[in-house]
Amino acid sequence: MESDCVSCGACVQACPTATLSEKSLIEMGQPERSVITTCAYCGVGCSFKAELKGDQLVRMVPYKGGAANQGHACVKGRFAFGYTTHKDRIKTPMIRDSIDQPWQEVSWEEAIAYTARRFKEIQTQYGRTSIGGITSSRCTNEETYLVQKMVRTAFGNNNTDTCARVCHSPTGYGLRQTLGESAGTQTFDSVKDADVILVIGANPTDAHPVFGSMLRKRLRQGAKLIVADPRAIDLLNSPHRQEVLHLPLRPGTNVALINALAHVVISEGFEDHAFIEQRCDSKTYQQWRDFIIGAENAPEAVAAITGVSADILRQAALTYAQAGNSAIYYGLGVTEHSQGSTMVMGIANLAMATGNLGRSGVGVNPLRGQNNVQGSCDMGSFPHELPGYQPVGNDPIRQRFEQLFLLLRFLAQQH
Fold first, then answer.
1. CA-closest candidate to residue 68, choices 236, 211, 229
2. DSSP annotation string for 116-180
3. HSE-up of residue 10 (Cα within 13 Å, Cβ side)
4. pLDDT at residue 238 in the model
5. CA gap 39, 45 in Å, rounded
6. Strand, helix or coil at 365?
7. Which of 193, 257, 326, 384 could form a disulfide with 361 if both were Cys (CB 3.0 to 4.6 A apart)?
8. pTM
9. What are 271-285's pLDDT values in tens digits?
10. Is the alpha carbon torsion for 251, 255, 258, 261 positive or negative?
């Protein structure tokens, strides 16, 4: 049987008679308490109430107070929590001296003491820089901050990194070079005010389902859609959609495509002159404009590179530039290329040239791989940046952190 149902569980949550109920609720009985938590599956970061009976998780209920999901959920966040009680889940610390030995369960105290001792022995034998730490972007800000602080103070080196290195660092660099800050410019709610939505290298309905449903709702309300992706993603088949353009570019030609779109905007006179005069650096903008207006960036020249016809490129550029509010959403199909940072800069430049920044319904919006990619980077998890994106290579900044960390260590020793 064909159906548009995505098993999100909204019908179960809305059922007023409990005719629809979770199997776990029937098997385990009514929960006794709940804890607000964050789903760790994708980059949306949905809030849930984890409802428990004793120490057993009975069900996950979308939390209506969650800013990202506002009471909505997808099938994974709502129902795929069996890993919490899976027989293979490790619940106690384990240690071993070598890879050919079996794991031994130990207490937390013994595990912490053993790990600290081995770290010291490794540094004594191989030097101070022989150990380091990597944080997960599914961890909280507090946890990632403590890891980088431990590496820089207790380990005495700068060997800290994060999994956001792969999906976010091109965004971090590209937006910092263009906008002066590495964060995305909007909240998820902003899509509700978008008139044109340009999706590049992302598949929101599959990879970010809750946001994907918000995006689809906006399309049903009349927003126009442009998709730049080699794949014919599911969004292109959204029911009741309005105007849709698909730019099936060749993999690796992102920068050529974004430059062609910008070329049309400039050559057709759709620059937002007031925004540029008030908000952009005139010298660097003129340098960019002189480059973009070049014949090598015209759609007719770029069509042979991207595989997208010049007519479609022009139509997409004018659709984006002429709308009241145009928003760009991009994913790993942008950032996980060798030219990822350059493409992010191109996206930001296009948004600035058309004045699509600084209000709801517009912006440069990266769709991340985990729920706290932004936070882990904010906390200084990269080796080249301290908390707050302050550069390690800046001597006064680094010395200020050294003094602060020494003071905190002294205060801790006094207690």
1. 211
2. HHHHHHHHHHH-GGG--EEE-TTS-HHHHHHHHHHIIIII-S--EEETHHHHTHHHHHHHHHHTS
3. 12
4. 80
5. 6
6. strand
7. 193
8. 0.91
9. 999 999 999 999 999
10. negative
Assess whether pLDDT exceeds 60 at residue 415.
no
The CA–CA distances, whole Å, from 386 to 6, 139, 187, 390, 411 equal: 42, 18, 25, 5, 21
Residue 49 CA to residue 53 CA, distance in Å, equals 13
Q: What is the mean pLDDT of the chain?
A: 93
Q: How far apart are CA 236 and CA 188, in angstroms?
A: 20
> Strand 133-135 vs strand 160-162: parallel, antiparallel, or unpaired?
parallel
CA distance 10 to 77: 12
How far apart CA 110 and CA 222 sit, in angstroms, is: 61
Spatial distance between the Cα atoms of 249 and 373, rounded to a whole number of angstroms: 27
**Which amino acid, residue 13?**
Q
How far is residue 329's CA from residue 335's CA, in Å, rounded to a whole number?
Answer: 12
Are residues 334 and 340 in contact, defined by beta-carbon separation less than 8 angstroms?
yes
